[in-house]
Specification:
Elements: E1 5-9, H1 21-34, E2 38-45, E3 48-59, E4 64-65, E5 72-73, H2 78-91, E6 100-104, E7 113-117, H3 132-136, H4 153-160, H5 168-176, H6 192-206, H7 210-219, E8 229-231, E9 251-253, E10 261-263, H8 271-278, E11 280-282, H9 284-293, E12 311-317, E13 320-329, E14 332-340, H10 351-363, E15 374-381, H11 384-395, E16 397-399, E17 402-404, E18 411-412, H12 414-430, H13 443-449, E19 458-464, H14 468-477, H15 479-485, E20 492-502, E21 511-518
Parallel strand pairs: 6-7, 18-20
Antiparallel strand pairs: 1-3, 2-3, 2-14, 3-4, 5-11, 8-11, 9-10, 12-13, 13-14, 15-20, 16-17, 19-21, 20-21
Helix pairs in contact: 1-10, 2-6, 2-7, 2-8, 6-8
């Protein structure tokens, strides 16, 4: 199967003579390996767009190629935009990030609050202390990940006895019925609902719609034309003419009447609710323009000539994958944005490194397969993970539909840990995390060399963007991984973290965690 290369701008801004073949191959191979139908890539170097190209199909059935100016969903890359908007509104004196998010009837406390909570709502104890800063930092105690009401709209509507889809305030009402899931202000738990609520608060503070405020105060100052970032639409018939199809064959119940079966991107989410959290469409160039003016990780305004920070952000839903990265290589400021109309969870983690490597080849930068310009890799054993896993095994828990009984403790085995150390180092250097070694040796052969059965064990390779406790919580949210952790036959474990550093000594990208759970031959 070939890949169509659509409208392109491969040479602008004084970049004539640059051979973009390596980067184009990365995009073409990304589509082929992951089953994505199409994508767009924009690269900005030292403030100038030097590469802009569409690949594959916007609509394969209609043979419509993906144009470089397509408007695609970009998911959670909306969150840095919301972060930037809130900071601007604070600078204007319209709100303070220390303000309380919720106003409770009859509450006696100092400080401004924003979202009025009706007196008739059933509200658990613990929500009065949540601030705007807590919501921005995902520390507001709201249900996270698979329990996030923003992704459970049919369940919320059913339990509240209201028509679907529920509003953002309905989602909040559902969340407030139980105490905060995590300690407010101290523990991070990723929340889409928190950013949906920040969008409502921005509208109250700014006196206009979220998109009007975003365009006026965030996008227009960095030369993003009006209409290049818009609200996403849930249903295919409502989409923009420049928007592609989103490819995912998972059938779900639509959140919209008459609630029939639809493909997940075509009504499985209420995109209009997600707005400030991830319910927007935009061109890759518009997102790159935003990144010229603001840092992804903090929402802070970038000062002219300011470089040296590495930020990477992904947006994912069924049927879409967005990647944005701010990167310094050889003292030069690099920004790239890649948007796709498909998503492959199993192969998504390697994509940033593939794009970085393509850019290094284009410009002849050093670093080989080191990823993000890394000059040094450090690897360490993480025996502290043993206590976290054994705590889970000691008590047992429900994993999806299956109740898993308590099981005996795992034992730390140094020989297994050393093998994992080597694999972690090799995988982060190659930026291709997986179960195969560089020499083609598979996981089972590595286990046999260490005296373990080739069947029944488990290896998990994960880009880690939080602490170890958060990683374990994410495993337990996934039925298959949860069951693996509690499998009684597993006896030994080894685990390692690998970290890349660039030439300035800064951490370059996420840490890579490799965990092996194994069964001894005897």
């Amino acid at each position: 199967m070939g890949v169509v290369v659509a409208a392109s701008l491969p040479q602008v801004g004084g970049q004539a003579g640059v051979n973009w073949g390596a980067l184009q191959r990365v995009m073409q191979e990304a589509l082929l390996r992951r089953g994505y139908h199409g994508g767009v890539l924009v690269v900005v170097k030292e403030g100038e767009v030097v590469f802009e190209q569409g690949f594959g199909w916007a609509d394969r059935a209609k043979k419509r190629a993906m144009p470089s100016n397509a408007l695609l969903r970009f998911g959670s890359i909306a969150k840095p935009m919301t972060h930037a908007l809130l900071k601007i509104l604070q600078k204007q004196g319209r709100l303070r990030l220390s303000d309380y998010a919720f106003c409770f009837h009859g509450a006696s406390r100092q400080g401004r609050c924003w979202l009025a909570i009706p007196a008739q709502w059933s509200v658990a104890v613990g929500w009065s202390a949540v601030t705007l800063q807590d919501l921005l930092q995902h520390q507001g105690g709201l249900p996270s990940r698979h329990d996030d009401p923003a992704l459970l709209e049919l369940r919320v509507a059913r339990q509240l006895g209201i028509p679907a889809p529920p509003s953002r305030m309905d989602l909040l009402r559902f969340a407030l019925q139980k105490p905060p899931q995590t300690a407010v202000g101290t523990t991070k738990a990723y929340s889409n609902l928190g950013y949906e609520l920040l969008g409502l608060i921005a509208e109250q503070a700014g006196g206009k719609s979220y998109l009007e405020l975003l365009q006026e105060w965030v996008l227009a100052p960095v030369q993003v034309a009006e209409g290049e970032v818009q609200a996403a639409r849930s249903l295919p018939q409502d989409r923009h003419p420049r928007e592609p199809d989103y490819v995912d064959d998972t059938l779900v119940t639509s959140v919209f009447p008459p609630h029939g079966s639809v493909f997940a991107p075509d009504g499985g989410y209420h995109e209009e609710n997600l707005l400030a959290a991830g319910g927007m469409i935009g061109s890759a160039r518009a997102i790159a323009q935003f990144m010229k003016g603001f840092w992804l990780g903090s929402g802070d305004v970038r000062r002219p000539g300011e470089v040296g920070q590495l930020w990477q952000m992904e947006g994912v839903q069924r049927g879409m994958h967005a990647l944005a990265e701010q990167w310094t290589q050889g003292g030069q400021d690099i920004t790239f944005v890649a948007l796709f109309n498909g998503y492959d969870a199993a192969r998504a983690a390697a994509l940033p490194g593939e794009l970085e490597e393509g850019l290094r080849q284009v410009y002849g930068w050093p670093g080989g397969q080191g990823g993000a310009g890394a000059q040094r890799v450090e690897v360490e054993r993480v025996p502290q993970l043993l206590a976290l896993l054994n705590q889970v095994r000691k008590s047992g828990r429900r994993c999806g539909a299956q109740e898993m009984a308590a099981s005996g403790p795992l034992q730390w085995q140094e020989s297994l840990a050393q093998a994992v150390l080597g694999h972690a180092r090799e995988q982060i250097q190659g930026n291709r995390p997986g179960l195969l070694s560089a020499d083609g040796t598979d996981l089972f052969a590595r286990w046999r060399r260490q005296g373990y059965r080739s069947a029944g064990g488990y290896e998990y390779v994960l880009w880690l963007d939080g602490d170890l406790g958060e990683a374990v919580a994410r495993w337990l949210d996934k039925e298959a991984l949860c069951q693996a952790v509690l499998r009684p036959a597993l006896k030994d474990m080894g685990a390692a973290l690998a970290v890349r550093y660039d030439g300035t000594g800064r951490q370059a990208g996420k840490q890579l965690l490799v965990l092996d759970l194994a069964i001894p031959e005897r």
